[in-house]
Amino acid sequence: MTTRPVIRAARFVLAHVPDLVYAGSKPRRETAARGRDVRAQIRSRLRTFREAVAYAPHQVMIGNQAPEALWDLPRPWHLHSPAEAPCEGPAGAVVDQPTFYAWLARADTARLIRFDEAFVAEAGPLVRGADLATASPDALRSAVASGAEPIGDPDGRGIGVLLPGHAQDESLAARVLLENLATKATGALALRRLLDGVAGDEPVDFLLGCGEEAVGDRYQRGGGNLAKAIGELAGIRTAGGADVKAFCAGPVHALIIAGSLVASGLHRRVVVVAGGSLAKLGMKFLGHLASGYPILEDVLAGVAIDVAGDDGRSPIINLDAAAVHRVGDGGAPHQMAAVLTQAPLRARGLRLSDVDRFAVELHNPDITEPAGAGDVPQRNYKMIAALAAQAAEIDREGIPAFVRRHGLPGFSPTQGHIPSAIPYLPHAIAGLTTGRCRRVQLIAKGSLFLGRMTEMADGASFLLERNAG
Amino acid sequence: MVDLRNKLVLALGERDGIPGQALQACAESAGARVVYVATQCFV
């Protein structure tokens, strides 16, 4: 029996973890090169939880504001965000560092964390009932000298340390395990959030992981299936799981596969999950410091997306209009845009102008521009608009208006796979159900060449359409 | 206009801009010798 697959809901959790910014790849490398002054500079520009919650792009991520509201908000947005805002919204929540640490503790099934005795005494209800291994400050310092990773500000008070998983295995080094545990915890936070709010009584049949972590030991570096570990931590017992790996294009590939699994009748409910990227915390911090900005990359982002059979209401994943970038396709930006946006539309007799909104990589430009990386979504929208001009749907002068009408401002934290189209999903679902939208195209790209196995890039797209019932 | 004949070129491409391989092809067609080519992703 086949059914049309729909996306019922998407939830995002942003874990505000200022004390883990130092563990990001760029801050770590700069500290190694220039000393502890780097940490002092970072520390002076970290945001409070209240500031991170009220930050307008974060309010868009959790669904309290529409993305379009950012068009009219002067930039940089941290200077024009309200002083207070709710930490919960219809599309998710921003959680504070103690909450994240409590989930990190629960995620540590290998019992490699040694907690600071004082932290456990003060943490109270957050870790109540957990059987935590503790150590004295002297023992923690000694562990760090032997390869353990501090959890928290290395110059200040952390919660403890993470021990290596094996003395000689680089794949189980403490800093690698901390990345993976952080991903697991944030993925589980998002999954739990989804299931607490959406059809909690319906079993999940399958979990599809789509993050960019590499879980495994030295004999299977990147062996994966973090999806099952995330499910276990979130308290799910009914689901199997597997991971889809495609760099930043992973989530859109995973949604196409999830839709196919549901359409085939193999599974009734598939949840696409991913946790955040510890390595990308503070990635652009030098640009932020130079511009007098706060450190804007201080959140880990988790996501959970609910794919199920046709309920007569939720927007439909149109698998006939799904596209992938093939090995033989060109890799130049205009070629990729044509393959992923125009070609699947043309095959269904649609024009680019027939799509209400294109969701591309939605990186927050306030994060990328101070570091010289430009406004990523606007570059992508100009390319799509140029294709529309080339196809004589609009004239050249109409490109800016096309970008405004069919594009979006970027609002996602630079968490790798997270910005790739999916942050718009909660808003797209609203627009395609209670709003006036008819179709939204989600487009993701992945930089495969970064792994040195190919010169190729990758991409995937699909059309999300209003359900006529 | 720069004459690239017999020049050594470092071709640094960007994922959302011009890929390194495209820069390489253009430079070589203009007579340059490309000694390094890479495409970067800045997000």
Overview of this protein structure:
Chain A: Pfam families: ACP_syn_III, DUF5940. The complex is a heterodimer of chains A (469) and B (43). Chain A has 469 residues and is of the alpha/beta class. Chain A has a domain of 150 residues: Peroxisomal Thiolase, Chain A, domain 1. Chain A is built from 16 helices and 15 strands. Chain A has a seven-stranded mixed β-sheet with strand order 2-3-1-11-10-8-9, with helices on both faces. Chain A is globular and about 70 Å long. The mean pLDDT of chain A is 96. Helices cover 23% and strands 35% of the residues of chain B. Chain B has one helix and two strands. The longest helix of chain B is centred in the middle third of the chain and has 10 residues. The N and C termini of chain B lie far apart (32 Å). The model of chain B has no long low-confidence stretch (mean pLDDT 92). Classes of the chains: A alpha/beta (469), B alpha+beta (43). Chains A and B meet through helix 14 of A and helix 1 of B.
